[in-house]
Structures are given as structure tokens and as C-alpha cells.
Predict the structure.
Amino acid sequence: MAAWATDMALIYFVYGAAFLFLGVSILRQPRLAHDCRLAGIIPLLGLFGLLHGVNEWLDFLRVIRGGDPLLDAVRTVVLPVSFLPLLEFGRRLMQPRLSRWTAPWMLALPLGVVGATAIASNLSVEHTLLASRYALALPGGLLTGAGLLQYARTAEPWVDTRRVRIMLATTGTAFILYAVLAGLVVPPLDVPLARHLN
């Protein structure tokens, strides 16, 4: 295996482990108080961590094993599915602020973009994964980040210390950065945006 491939394999392995740790940590936390709006939706963020960690480990396998049609097919399903809980978490978090623009049926739009891209590209793995990043990861990360930044200013009783507010704001900022890096900075592909941001 080439040195660059070894480096990439290590990056995917560690990156996947970080997401899996995020997911397990969130899902194992004691439940938040019932009067906390995050209590009912935080498991979605944990599910995102678990699914996206699995996706990164599938990328790890692709690097160490090489091309494999079955592995590519699984990756094409797992990546968009992993972004769905993130998008749904962000949608629910921003619902009080954006009201009708965050109706549940709005999830059909980004899913339709991914499905249409897959069909139009003859089920091209690269194009489908790219569409998943643009249509699901980018809005999911932005909604989650903006929602957490807004939540840091809420009047809920448990958000009562400067430390909690700073943690929420930092996490929100990290998700906005993640949205840009995972949703806009994509592998090079012969489509307008991907030619310049990769």
C-alpha cells in the first residue's frame, strides 16, 4: 500500500472512531429534563454520529481494499442516510424560528435532489455522494449550527450558566464549520462547484 493510502486509511479510521464516540457519548448520556427542548431531539445527533462513523469506516475499507462494487453500493446508501438525522435534528431545532419553512415534508426536497442525481448519473457513486453532501450535509450542518447558536441564548432553566452557553455556542460554530467542510469542500468532480471547491 502506498504511503498516501496508509495516511488516508489512518485518517478515515480515526475520523470514523471520533464520530462513533460522539454517537455513543450522546446516546449514553442521562436524559435531559423534560422541560428542555433538546431532550426529545438529541438522540438524532447521536444517531448521526453512529451512522457517519460507520460511513467513515466504509471509506477506510475502500482505501485498504481498493475498488469493490458491493462496498461502493453500500457507501452510496450509508452516506445520505447518515446525514438524515443531522438534517432532522437541525430542522426540529430551528422549527420555532423558521416555522413553516421547516415542515417535515421539506425533507423530501433534499432527498429528491439526491435521488434525481443518482438516476440522472446512472447510479454513479461519485455523483450520488456529491449530491448527498450538497443537499443533506450542508443544510443539516448549517441548521444544526444555527440552531445551537440560537439555543445558547434561550431562557430554558438548564441553560443558566455562562459555561453551558459557551459550550452550546462552540458546538454550534463547529457544526457550521463542519457544514462548509463536509458539504461544500468535496472530492473533485466535473460539476461546476466541485471543480473549484475541493
About this structure: The longest helix spans residues 69-98.
